[in-house]
Structures are given as C-alpha cells and as structure tokens.
Amino acid sequence: MLEEVLDIRSRSLGEDNAATSRTRSNLAVVLGVLGRNDEAQQILERELELQLAILGPDHPSTAGVRNSVARQLMRQKKHLEAVEQLREVLRVERLTHGDRELPAAATLHLVAVESSRGDDQAGAEAAIGEALAIRREKLGPDDPETLLSHYWLGQILGKQERWAEAVDVLADCYEAAVRAETSKYPIARESARLSAEYYESIGDAAAASRWRARMNEHS
Question: Can you give the pLDDT at residue 5?
Fold first, then answer.
C-alpha cells in the first residue's frame, strides 16, 4: 500500500516534495521491520541523497535521515558503516545544540556501542567516555541513561582485557544502580554478571563468586 502511495506522490508531487519524503521514510521503516533490509536501505539512501541536495549536509532534517540510515545499518549488523553515519549526525548535532548537550551524548553512546560491536574498542572507549561525562553533568550519576553509559564503559574495557579497570568501573556502576533503584535497564544485574566474568578471567574465584551472588539478588 505504501509503495503505491509513494509511486503516486512521486509522480504527482515530485520526489523532493515533503509529503513524498514522509511516505518514503515511512515505507523504509516498514520494510526494515519486515526484514526487507536491502530495499529499506536503498530507499533511505535515496532520501538522504535528496535531503543533501535540497537542504545541505548541515541541516537537522538531513541529519535525521542520516540517523535513520545508521539505524538501518545497525539492524544489518554493519556496525562500522553505521558509525560513519552516526559521526556525521554527531557533527550536525554539535553545530545545532552545542558540544556538551544531551543529543550529542545520545549519539556518542550509539557510536560507542556500534564501534565496540565492530571491534574498534579504542574508538568505542573515547566515545563512551565523552557520552558518560556529558550525561553525568546534565543528568547526574544515578540517571538510567548515565548508568547505561557507565555500564558500557566497563564492558568496553573488558573487551580490551583491561580486567582490573573494568571491574573497578563496574563496581562503581553497580553501587550507583543499587542506590538509584533503577528499573529502566537491568544495570545492577548486568554489572554484577560482567564483574563475575571478569574476575574469573583474572583468576580470582572468590571475587567471582561474590559477584555471582550479587547478580542473583537482582534476577
């Protein structure tokens, strides 16, 4: 149905019309949900091409389409390609909102996650550190979004086998999550789980056992 509407609007209103653009974006979302990822990607890339030509690379609407392209790449596990798009989104957000504002922090968090999944742990660590600093400043240390970035810092350090640093970060994250009694994300349980796993890697069975017990408290 949306494909027919898009065809009609493209012919009657033109490809660059706002209503055509909305239909194209909606169709891409539906196709992505249905698992028709290649088709969704093609539609989004065409939409981005048009936005770049009409509005330019620095317009927030262009960044919004680019963000959709990145999320479609994430669905396909094309992690580092998604990071390229997200970094351009981040550039525009900083132009629009400033360097140390929450929109930038949210995109930095995604950059970190996708970089880590693409095995760029150094890039992931830099991005998550910046995201965490902004969220601590703007939201406080016990906010669920801050805690999520805090947890990911510990995970990224662990992926680099920097066990001692990772367990210190995760211990702080666990205490903050318990203090906040947050239920939005299972931060306390997951921090305890990773701590147990990393202590096992270090060879400290007693510490691993203590953290497994804490994990079970939050099951």
Answer: 39
Which domains does the chain show, CATH number per domain? 1-76 (1.25.40)
Q: How far apart are CA 153 and CA 176, in angstroms?
A: 14
The 10 Å CB-count burial string (b at 16+, else e) for 140-152 is: ebbbebbbbbbbb
Say if residues 202 and 183 touch (Cβ distance below 8 Å). no
- Angstrom distance (rounded) from CA 147 to CA 25: 32
Contact (Cβ atoms closer than 8 angstroms) between residue 82 and residue 74: yes
Q: Tokens at residue 190, please?
A: 């997951």
Pull the structure tokens for residue 31: 């196709």
Q: Output the DSSP codes for 157-203.
A: HHHTT-HHHHHHHHHHHHHHHHHHT--SS-HHHHHHHHHHHHHHHHT
Write down the pLDDT at residue 135. 97
Q: What is the pLDDT of residues 3-42, one digit of tens each?
A: 543 444 454 545 655 556 667 777 777 777 788 888 888 8
pLDDT digits (tens, 9 = 90+) for 119-132: 999 999 999 999 99
What predicted TM-score, i.e. pTM, was given to this entire model? 0.88
Q: How many CA atoms lie within 13 A of 190 on its CB side?
A: 17
